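Marked as duplicate of an earlier ticket. Keeping the data here for the record.
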Amino acid sequence: MSVPDIRRLQLARLGVGLIFLSNGAAYASLVPRLPEVKAELGMTNAVFGLAIAAFPAGALAAGAAAGVLIRQFGSRLLAWVGMVVSMAAILAAAAANSLPLFIAAIFLAGCADSITDVAQNHHALRVQKLMGRSIINSYHAMWSVGALIGGALAAGAISVGLHRVAHLAIVAVLILAVTTVGHRLMLPGPEPTEATPHEAHTHGNGRVRHPYLVLAMLSILAIAGAIEEDNAGSWATLYMSTELGVTGGLAATGYVAAMGSHFLGRITGDWLVNRLGQRTMARLGGVLLVLGTAIMIVFPSPWTTILGYACAGYGVATVVPSIFEAADSMPGFKPGTALTVVSLTLRIGFLASPPLVGLIADASAIRWGLLVLPISGLVIVALSGVLSSRHETWDVPVLDK
């Protein structure tokens, strides 16, 4: 198979970036409107948490099929189709007039998001391999930009009194236009199928770990990172509006702060990880997550909440991309196997977090449900040793199978 020239690769990089941008903006456009849906459908905090959990449930249900679909139809087409279905489902969720319809729409959105997520990351790694340098954090930065734009536009729509269905219909048209451009710029042709063997490495006096143990640790790290991302989307706006008394579009500022700091962390992520290593960045990020969210829980106010979510967003910005890279290059597994497992277990964090926080919130307050954030930060600090101390090579000792 011929290697595309540098201009074609640059266009493909832009195309994948537009898919990441659109994927980030899609669900983020609905998030600030969720308190309206919750109120209109008369949901309790626990029911709301369970309803929102339909999104990661759908992602888990569809994620296992993503690899087969990619091999059958290609990541380029699959990413575009996934975005079309995502926006249709999100628009249906905004218009839902009953709880079952809302849950069904959210479930379908989760299914489509999972397919898009695997397809866009698969294509991103394909472009990265051809370019010969790390660009994965910049792709995730584009996702954060999309989430920031989606959340900010939603806050603006709320401020001017635009109905959520009209707001999301406009967003759907814009996102599908951007996604279509991205699809046309991505690499054509079938997916590469050649396997690259992974060799086990041992360095220094480090303790040798079994590949399955390393994969389990990476999966738990992914769950901890997912908890932060889900919490900002599911609970930040509701917490600020119901327990801190923030009104109108300003109630979305906690979520916007999380997504904005996510972007800053990821746009600088490749530079920092290349210099400090995945392990150090994860430890520093986990500490920042613990400190920032602990302050917002102990001293509840709009400003400490914005600060806490900003610290959380920046703290975990490079964690999930580092986990994906580590899994993809991990010795002891066939290419793509560890990445698929980590991608699926990542969704467990999204699935478990909303109902857990909702149950705690109904028993006490949303504020105490937010304790999952500093706890996830402690998990990241504790397990960061499984990541590489350098960017270029896998240096966690792994036992030969």
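See parent ticket for discussion. The longest helix spans residues 99-131.
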